[in-house]
Design brief:
The protein is α+β, with helices and mostly antiparallel strands. Helices cover 39% and strands 17% of the residues. A 5-stranded mixed beta sheet has the order 1-4-2-3-5, with helices on both faces. Helix 1 packs antiparallel against helix 2. The protein is globular, with a radius of gyration of 15 Å.
Length: 150
């Protein structure tokens, strides 16, 4: 698993289009600035970031990270997107700009338990990069998480 910073500029997006996982691999990404974040998933990150860069509603977001793994598939990224939106809303470091809860990934999929067990590792890495305020353990033990409608 890797969590990499991505240059969220037109030049950075062009360079991303030349990277192995920049155009043809399922990824989860986080766009953010000092106080706002947007979480998404895609199978073509350079195209998706170009769409976001052109969107006036997201133009204040100036940084990005992508989360990749050799074993990612579409079901996993949908699930991670949804989980990260929920966790970021409860963490409250950023105002989350997603208009919805993420695309539905409430279905079972192959090895879901294995992928769910990787979420604390992802969160720990995000925490170490100062992208979150609270640890994973603190969040999942928070009553807002336990009783969240998300």
């Amino acid at each position: 698993m890797a969590i990499e910073s991505v240059d969220f500029t037109w030049d950075g997006i062009r360079k991303l289009s030349q990277k192995n996982r920049g155009t043809n691999w399922p990824v989860v990404y986080i766009l953010y600035n000092e106080d706002t974040a947007y979480i998404g998933e895609t199978c073509n990150l350079s195209n998706r970031l170009a769409q976001h860069r052109s969107n006036k509603k997201l133009d204040s977001l100036n940084r990005a990270v992508m989360i990749t793994d050799d074993d990612f598939n579409k079901s996993v990224t949908l699930d991670y997107e949804q989980t990260l939106i929920k966790l970021f809303k409860i963490d409250k470091k950023y105002m989350v700009r997603n208009r919805n809860r993420g695309q539905s990934a409430c279905h079972e999929y192959y090895d879901r338990n294995l992928y769910e067990s990787k979420m604390p590792i992802i969160w720990k890495e995000l925490f170490s990069k100062n992208l979150t305020r609270r640890t994973y353990g603190d969040l999942i033990n928070d009553n807002m998480y336990k009783y969240s409608p998300y």
